[in-house]
């Protein structure tokens, strides 16, 4: 076993935002093993106080540029809950299709651009351009389609405009929905090719297991992404449910010295949210084609390997495409037409939850009798995963040390583990830094 | 089609300058003869606008130019080299120049593209522009509107 290891990954690459991994092993003893999140608080809950209910989702959608649809949906659902608004079945179906679009878009980015370089042994996607041109071109083609799929219904996928309390502000035409369905069907060759690509590197997915609790939205009717109740599944397979209104009793936020982000826990010391958590909770309700893929990959619940989160994302891409085709058939078959917004019936307090790419997302707001926001609370999935990442790292390091891995291999193994969670820490700036050529 | 495209993170003060100009254009109905698009912190969406039919793109972004806060430069991607150390394409590491490099390597058509680079004063968490950028907001707007219509 290696006696001395010092790893300090400052600003881990290929994750969204800032996170550090620090490992210090002296004379075979782990003296420090930390997943650190040094992002600054963003105070969105304070920013929405005093704002009219029609403005709140516009503001909170800015929490994330990747999951802007998810934040909009969770926000609008919480507001509708507070205002006694029950949207129509058509709205629920169209919003579910929008949710599938966002999850597929983000999953494709994660699988192809953030995880694939590790599996192909490359530092980033750039070295893969000459060696795996077809894969990169396919990835970009699929990602562009997912973006157009979401934009058609949500107005745009970054800070969407059409999802508002009471329904949708604008509607695509019937012809546009039919064309979307055709494009979803036509995606099959790219889906098949993606599965082949993943199968070709499946043996590179590290084998590591740690039993934990998995939390996701759940429904008796469908593989929940837009609606449902909170459910966790324990390592022994036992499941327990809570209404969304009780989200605080199963998230139990707390703070730790090494991180500015809040951690959460429920029955165990930590829980996992995200694609693997949804897969473990709701496998039986996956579309048959998605289940078939999971079977091909010999992937079944309960799976305790966090690296398989990326594989669960691929299964969800297939599910999202197939389920959207089903929903479009239902919407078009039921006399699709633009609908008026459902008006508020009261003002009070309400909660909303959806499944964003990285897991279950909660929003809660209160409104006074003029419809002005009196306060809010958002619990994002990346924060819910920090505690689980920490405990995974603590379990993984001794195994890597025992396997006599060198420092670089240990570092890569730890980085891949964190990347598997697809954390979105969201404090990133995007600015260019250049010098002019002489 | 012509595009003004804003990139940036809405929550990180001056990093949002491109997004705020795009929002202003759309809300004021100034988007005549071109489309104004905010792609936030997902720079790869820039690829969707690299098409044979695209006549011109003006990209607005916060750029570390080594100038005083609020100063700006109009330049083509070929005029500069990136000095960022990051190699990847996540929203954290990636930038428009990286995306354009990827596009070039994959044979995407690169239409005439100008970057309106604005030196940020504050890239910390915050939902407002720094005073230096607020003061010149309408200057940036006019430059972008003029540039996107240029033949």
Please provide a brief summary of the model.
The complex is a heterodimer of chains A (438) and B (151). Chain A has helices at 44-47, 53-60, 68-82, 89-119, 128-131, 133-154, 174-186, 188-200, 247-251, 275-282, 288-296, 309-333, 381-402, 407-420, and strands at residues 5-9, 20-26, 29-36, 163-164, 167-168, 213-218, 229-233, 239-242, 271-272, 349-356, 359-367, 373-379, 432-436. With 438 residues, chain A is an alpha+beta fold.
Q: What integer is the average pLDDT of chain B? A: 88
Structural class of chain B: alpha/beta
H/E element string of chain B? EHEEEEHEHH
Number of helices of chain A: 14
Distance between the termini of chain B: 12 Å
Q: Give a quick account of the main beta sheet of chain B: strands, pairing sense, barrel closure.
A: 5 strands, mixed
- How many β-strand stretches of chain A? 13
Query: What is the CA-atom radius of gyration of chain B, in angstroms?
Result: 14 Å
Amount of beta strand of chain A: 15-25%
- Fraction of residues in H or I helices of chain B: 25-40%
Average pLDDT over all residues of chain A: 90
Trace the largest sheet of chain A across and list its strands: 8-7-6-9
Beta-strand fraction estimate of chain B: 15-25%
Shape of chain B: globular
Largest interface, with counts of residues having CB < 8 Å to the other chain, equals: A-B, 49 and 55 residues
Largest sheet of chain A: 4 strands, mixed
Q: What is the number of helical segments of chain B per DSSP (H or I, 4+ residues)?
A: 4
| Quaternary organisation of the protein chains | heterodimer
Given the helix and strand composition of chain A, which structural class is it? alpha+beta
Task: Tell me, briefly, the overall form of chain A.
Answer: globular
The low-confidence parts of chain B are: none
């Amino acid at each position: 076993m290696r006696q001395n290891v010092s790893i300090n990954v400052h600003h881990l690459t290929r994750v969204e935002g800032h996170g550090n991994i620090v490992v210090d092993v002296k004379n075979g003893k782990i003296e420090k093993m930390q997943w650190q999140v040094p992002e600054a608080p963003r105070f969105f809950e304070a920013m929405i106080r005093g704002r009219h209910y029609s403005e709140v989702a516009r503001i909170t959608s800015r929490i994330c540029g990747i999951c802007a649809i998810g934040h909009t949906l969770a926000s609008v659902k919480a507001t509708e809950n507070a205002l006694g608004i029950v949207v129509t079945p058509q709205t629920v179906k169209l919003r579910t299709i929008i949710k599938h679009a966002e999850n597929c878009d983000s999953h494709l980015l994660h699988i192809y651009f953030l995880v694939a370089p590790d599996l192909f042994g490359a530092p980033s996607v750039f070295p893969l351009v000459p060696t795996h041109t077809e894969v990169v071109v396919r990835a970009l083609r699929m990602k562009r389609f997912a973006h157009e799929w979401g934009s058609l219904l949500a107005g745009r996928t970054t800070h969407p405009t059409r999802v508002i309390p009471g329904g949708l502000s604008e509607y695509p035409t019937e012809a546009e929905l039919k064309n979307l369905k055709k494009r979803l069907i036509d995606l099959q060759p790219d889906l098949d090719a993606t599965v082949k690509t993943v199968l070709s590197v499946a043996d590179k997915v590290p084998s590591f297991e740690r039993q934990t609790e998995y939390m996701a939205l759940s429904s008796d009717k469908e593989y929940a992404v837009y609606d449902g109740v909170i459910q966790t599944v324990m390592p022994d397979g036992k499941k327990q449910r809570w209404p969304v209104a009780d989200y605080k009793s199963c998230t139990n936020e707390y703070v730790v010295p090494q991180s500015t982000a809040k951690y959460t826990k429920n029955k165990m010391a930590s829980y996992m949210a995200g694609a693997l958590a949804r897969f473990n909770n709701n496998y039986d309700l996956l579309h048959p084609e998605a289940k078939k893929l999971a079977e091909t990959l010999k992937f079944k619940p309960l799976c305790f390997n966090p690296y398989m989160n990326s594989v669960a994302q691929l299964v969800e891409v297939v599910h999202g495409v197939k389920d959207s085709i089903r929903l479009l058939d239902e919407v078009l078959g039921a006399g699709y037409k633009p609908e008026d917004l459902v008006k508020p019936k009261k003002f009070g307090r309400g909660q909303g939850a959806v499944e964003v790419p990285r897991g279950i997302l909660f929003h809660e707001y209160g409104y006074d009798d003029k419809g002005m926001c009196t306060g809010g609370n958002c619990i994002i999935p990346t924060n819910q995963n920090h505690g689980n990442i920490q405990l995974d790292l603590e379990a993984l390091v001794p195994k890597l040390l025992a396997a006599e891995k060198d420092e670089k291999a240990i570092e890569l193994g730890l980085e891949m583990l964190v990347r598997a969670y697809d954390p979105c820490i969201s404090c990133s700036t995007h600015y260019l830094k250049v010098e002019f050529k002489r | 089609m012509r595009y003004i495209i804003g990139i940036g993170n809405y929550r990180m003060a001056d990093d949002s300058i491109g997004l705020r100009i795009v929002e202003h254009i759309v809300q004021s109905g100034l988007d005549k003869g071109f489309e104004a698009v905010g792609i936030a912190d997902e720079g790869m969406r820039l690829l969707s606008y690299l098409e044979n039919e695209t006549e011109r793109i003006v990209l607005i972004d916060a750029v570390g130019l080594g100038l005083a806060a609020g100063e700006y430069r109009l330049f083509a991607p070929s005029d500069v080299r990136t000095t960022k150390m990051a190699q990847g394409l996540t929203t954290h590491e990636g930038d428009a120049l990286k995306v354009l490099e990827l596009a070039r390597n994959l044979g995407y058509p690169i239409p005439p593209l100008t970057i309106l680079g604005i030196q940020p004063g504050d890239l910390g968490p915050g939902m407002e522009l720094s005073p230096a950028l607020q003061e010149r907001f309408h200057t940036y707007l006019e430059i972008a509107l003029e540039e996107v219509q240029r033949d």
